[in-house]
Amino acid sequence: MKLSIQVNEGPYQHQATDSAYNFTKAAIEAGHEIFRVFFYHDGVNNGTRYTTPPQDDRNIVDRWSELSAEHDLDLVLCVAAAQRRGLVDEGEQERNKKDGNNIAPGFRISGLGQLIEAGIQSDRLVVFGD
Amino acid sequence: MKLSIQVNEGPYQHQATDSAYNFTKAAIEAGHEIFRVFFYHDGVNNGTRYTTPPQDDRNIVDRWSELSAEHDLDLVLCVAAAQRRGLVDEGEQERNKKDGNNIAPGFRISGLGQLIEAGIQSDRLVVFGD
Amino acid sequence: MSVTKKFLYVNRRAPYGTIYAWESLEVVLIGAAFEQDVALAFVDDGVYQLAKGQDTKGIGMKNFSPTYSALGDYDINKIYVEKESLEARGLTLEDLQHLVWEDEDEDWAEKDSIQVVTSAELADLMEQQDVVLSF
Amino acid sequence: MSVTKKFLYVNRRAPYGTIYAWESLEVVLIGAAFEQDVALAFVDDGVYQLAKGQDTKGIGMKNFSPTYSALGDYDINKIYVEKESLEARGLTLEDLQHLVWEDEDEDWAEKDSIQVVTSAELADLMEQQDVVLSF
Amino acid sequence: MSMLHTVNKSPFEKDSMNSCLRLSADGSSILLIEDGVFAAQEGTVVSDSVKEAMKSKKVYALQEDINARGVQGKVMDGIELVDYAGFVKLVTEHDKVQSWV
Amino acid sequence: MSMLHTVNKSPFEKDSMNSCLRLSADGSSILLIEDGVFAAQEGTVVSDSVKEAMKSKKVYALQEDINARGVQGKVMDGIELVDYAGFVKLVTEHDKVQSWV
Hints:
The complex is a heterohexamer, with two copies of chain A, two copies of chain C and two copies of chain E. By secondary structure, chain A is α/β, with parallel strands linked by helices. Chain A has helices at 16-29, 60-71, 79-85, 90-95, 113-121; strands spanning 2-7, 33-39, 75-78, 107-110, 124-128. In chain A, helix 1 (16-29) packs parallel to helix 2 (60-71). By secondary structure, chain E is an alpha/beta fold. Chain E contains four helices and five strands, in the order E-H-E-H-E-H-E-H-E. The model of chain E has no long low-confidence stretch (mean pLDDT 97). Chains A and C meet through helix 5 of A and helix 1 and strand 7 of C.
């Protein structure tokens, strides 16, 4: 079955992204196809490569990046939400004249249409939030 | 009177940082001294210079930076919270071997002791959160 | 993409205290271009999103409530408000904006977009959807 | 800094669903070095922070509940748990960790750190504080 | 003066207003801000418990947040409206502040 | 199969469990995750309303979240515990999912 996931909260503050990660992993293990993971609201904060969690804690950002690399996951940060919250890739850096970018490997920034498309193309959309 | 402010949520998602800003401004206008504004939990996300909100919306980060410049406000991001969430200044960049930093003008990163000190040194501590 | 699905946006939070109401509206507006079968539900504190007389000058935030009256132009005219949520908050339909749309099949007659429904009716409506997005 | 103030940390949220419980504990531990008069209150879902038998392996998060038993070593021994919050959740003192401290004035006798108090007692205790930090 | 309590969450959505009412001492003050201002509204399912609390506690609400939410005409009698300058004044007039975040 | 509802907030803290119970149709399923699992506990102030709902709806709870919170021994009869693999299975076995975030 084709599944999409929506994540509405950032790393560490809320369990939403942990639950989404564990769910996504279990879905892949069960043989399902993940059409897309869409990060909305504060969820875009999951896509920063600047995190350095304590050594005895999980690295939420790296975990998503690695899952993406292993299974070719499409990890999309909503552009409008990302602009408000300071998530920047190379394109956004240029467009908004920033002096750098902070997006982590495996993530890309795109429009809200990607969420609607995920709703249309997937058999199920599961939302994780606050 | 000497006041300190604690902000527990990031920009845009929750009103906490707006309320804290409006309160801080009103306190300064009333002639009070602001000992410190301490950003904890997701509050550290207020200190990123990578935000680009829509043109018809307020720029929450710039507003804090400007208030700091005008009134010599001490804006402190908790280091432990900042590391988890990807807020980096030059020192953190070097320490954690990051390829850049994203802290906005007027903010600095320091330890939780700064919050306790604010509690001790201030006549009142007011917390804004979710 | 020729699939047409029934999308329901469930709005459960008050405006301004959090951004969910506004960022939900942004999805609805973008989503309108996809020509899906769209409905909006306002329950719990979400009913305050439609309240008349919002004035945000004092909090320095953008008043986005006028945007709801544009929904009719986007062919979004199924707006369900839960009766029980209104009642718990001492509100009536009179306290909400009057949202309308123009029916091209009836010579552009102006019709009400908001329907007040009971919890039971809304539960049934939810069951008929294909995709439910909750904010 | 020779000022000594009464600090109360009010913990109102369950562990793991949000980070407030853990980041509150981080403040308490750092704050212990400042030699203030510290007390902790656990009310509402905060009482679950002290629950025995937490096992976080399945959710991939660090189990920080053992840290509470170290509070006694930091001279933090005024831990108030609200009776009404326990009762609403069907919990008793038996469901919580047994937290102790050693009283150096009484030949290091081991004493209970947790005191179950009523809402009214806790309201009075709150009034006696200088600084209240709520998580 | 005793303690100032602030409540910023809707009484319909979260338990913080209830907890504040239960755990605030008689004679203390409560300031409603952000979504907390809905507790100031007349004719809701929580109005009675707020009125009961007003017998022993003083309740304020932030005008700016009331206006933003369109409930200007619905504030119950006995609740005093303050602006941000009034918020600052309340903070300084009370010994300490507890935020029911 | 009809709709799967997920609830991730404590029934003591937020209104989402109540709203889910009020707005879910008979025959639908409810999965409790994260802090939502407290609604699965026996002997609380919300247990009766959950039991009432279980007459017409099926209630599940995520074992991993139950364990994390130390309430393993307190789950009420009739609630089925599932792991993440079971969560995925529930999602695929129902027509659609509504998250009461």
